[in-house]
Amino acid sequence: MTMSPSVITPVSFNRRLKNRVVQGLVWLAFILAVIPLISVIWLVVKNGLARFDTEFLTHSMRNIGARDAGGGAYHAILGTLEQVGLATLISVPVGLLTAIYLVEYGQGRRLARSISFFVDVMTGIPSVVAGLFILAFWVLVLGLGYSGFAGALALSILMMPTVVRSTEEMLRLVPNELREASYALGVPKWKTILRIVLPTAFTGIITGIMLAIARVAGETAPLLLTVFITDSINTDPFTGPQMGLPLYIFDQMGRPNDTAIDRAWAGALTLILFVMLLNLAARIIAWWRSPAKGR
Amino acid sequence: MAKQIEVSDLDAYYGSHKAIEGITMTVEPRSVTAFIGPSGCGKSTFLRTLNRMHEVIPGARVQGKIMLEDQDLYDKDVDPVSVRRTVGMVFQRPNPFPTMSIFDNVAAGLRLNGRISKSEAQGIVETSLKDANLWNEVKDRLNKPGSGLSGGQQQRLCIARAIAVSPAVLLMDEPCSALDPISTLAIEDLIAKLKNDYTIVIVTHNMQQAARVSDRTAFFNLAGQGQPGKLVEMDETSKIFTNPTQKATEDYITGRFG
Question: Per the confidence metrics, is the pTM higher than 0.90?
């Protein structure tokens, strides 16, 4: 049975059926994807709230006996802030400048191609390996010992490729016409990058950096190898072992008491809140700098 | 201050591909010169050699000589950035800076090229916007983003931005091809006004537009696929459109090809 193409027909039953089936599958996939997310949040909030109090946020684990309740994650929060902060300070400038080189200056040169290749390789480095590298190089060979800074170095190895890739993508999204418009005004290239290209890509770059921070904030293995573990507050990230929230969770979880397990859950909740706050901050910065705001 | 441009025996390349060949012409100051010709004949490429924007593309290079009054634009010691400060450009698609307000867009060239006082900037922005026939439409929303304007307004904003740095020459690469007829008319009126102060070169695909706005017209063509574009003839606009010397020009303007 052939139909002439000029006849307008209603949507066939067959197509309606296929449409329904595919729609159903898409919904199913969506629900499947959301179930773990919701259940993780639910579980962490439910179990974490038990110990999520001011004492938890303002006290360390120093002099807390094995079976004692109380104690907190202040030393871990502080450590995470310092380690992640230092890692950001190291990897963002390097990553940003690398991405600028790749997009604005490299363009098909051999150096740019090889950098691009090694960034890809770095993206695939397992976090333990980054930790092992810093352990071997910084802690053992140079003999500088465990410190928050060693952890920051390991984290920045993990952060750098993410920052480079996301920044690179954002810079490529900036239309070439804007660069040309700037050149045509007699603006030098470096100033064009600084004043036109980077501000245009700003929100995207910030989002990428925040995602990179969020990614490393939860890393445990590299910190275990470089920062070690402590129950005391150590405000100096350059000397002596520190704590970090992932380490805290790992440590408390391994202790055989319900009070410790409760602290581990509260630590997990703190970590999730930390990452969410970072994302919120990124959104606010993005909104504040968005050109559409004034419209 | 308008200046004369003298081009002699100019070739431009993209890598090993020769895009235009052997172009020699004089562009008169305080007048409008139109470049017409079929797509791909190198008009835009040639236009971009006039302010050294051609070499911005990787692998692109130029051979030959362009004199702006008594200055050789391609002299070894000449800074291409300073050439672009003297020879401004307006592009095919309006491209205001999206992160900047209308005011900042117009002031961009001044600010990015050096420090300038607020009051000085204010004066220049106002005159530039007035010269671009845009002042009355935007004077109440100077701090709103430039991307919120209509296409025609955006293009006039780009013209205001280009003339704010007071160049000697203004190059326009099909400035109306993305605009509706009313905006096109506004820009054409503006071109007629600007030619009192600037040397204007405009690339256009619209022959009526060339006939309406320009004093002199240059017709470009290419001998065949893959061959470099060449200048076929250049003369008073009225002569090109009524009595061209070359057969190819006549064929093109009467619509027999292209």
Answer: no
